Input
Amino acid sequence: MRSSKALSADPITPLVAGARSALERAAATIGLDLADAELAHCGHNVGFTLPGAGLFARVGPPGSQDKARNAVVCSRYFHQQNLPVVPPIEGRHALASTAYGPVTFWPLLHPVDAPVDFRWLGRTLRRLHDLPGRGMPPAQRTSRRDLGSRVGRFLQSRPDPSVRRKIEALVRELDECALVLPTLAVGPVHGDPYPSNVLATAAGYRLLDYDGSGIGHQLLDLAPIFAAHKRFGLGQADLKAFVDGYGSDPRALPEFGAVLRLRELGLVTWLLKFAGHLEAYYDELEWRLATLDSTDDWTDLGHGVVDAAGATEGSACRM
Ligand SMILES: Nc1ncnc2c1ncn2[C@@H]1O[C@H](COP(=O)(O)OP(=O)(O)OP(=O)(O)O)[C@@H](O)[C@H]1O
Ligand SMILES: [Mg+2]
Output
């Protein structure tokens, strides 16, 4: 295993600055005081706590309006169906579109220190998959075109022929694996049910992050946990607890190999979005490319984002 590296928060300053200005714009529109706003998280979205108002603001990256809209609609629906989620703040706070990206507001949760209960996660996902899903929008996945432009931007910033060849091979494999998708059953999905999207609170666990929620491929919704087991050190006992809670084991299905591979490849292409922003991700990308055909662990650099304190933390890794 390689040794861990601490990532500096500095290179993400432009991302945070853009998000902060979007939050200021949204707050001005609805008359919200930002005096006590604090940066809490920088992942796919940038999160701010607003303790005085009891709110958590999520600022999505440019072009993620549809995901933000889905998140609001789906979390409202899940909440109405009594799932342990966080409903959006309604009314004028629901969703503000800014020139930078969408801003959504949520009740501020206060986490408690407790390990993720994987049986709970499996059970909760089963309940979600069994919902009728009436009125839910189609789940938003990164389109092939968006992936193509992300790859293009990355290769422009890093014209390295050997990396180029590996990424081109990876995109070809992604296309092959994606052929399985039209054969899969669709229904309500969370979109990214994995440990970092579970928050323990004094009132119980909450499943967060509905950017990928909607009507989608349910088998794909099981891949994050199995990828966490294969690549990010999730133990056998936790995996078993998840499968027991869910009530069935997808590994028995012939399609699951391609589905899990899609997730793994997505864990690599997700990193391309940091092109030009964060040097440490280039090492991480090379490491994942080099080990794609093995079962090597990918936890070394935290497989994720840089939080406000500059420490790494687990993150959703999407295509
Ligand atoms: N309503 C909330 N109250 C308090 N903290 C929250 C709330 N929503 C999210 N958070 C915190 O922010 C973190 C990231 O939230 P979320 O997963 O929604 O964002 P994200 O941008 O998708 O992150 P990532 O890309 O890392 O998955 C959570 O793990 C949690 O610590
Ligand atoms: Mg998340």
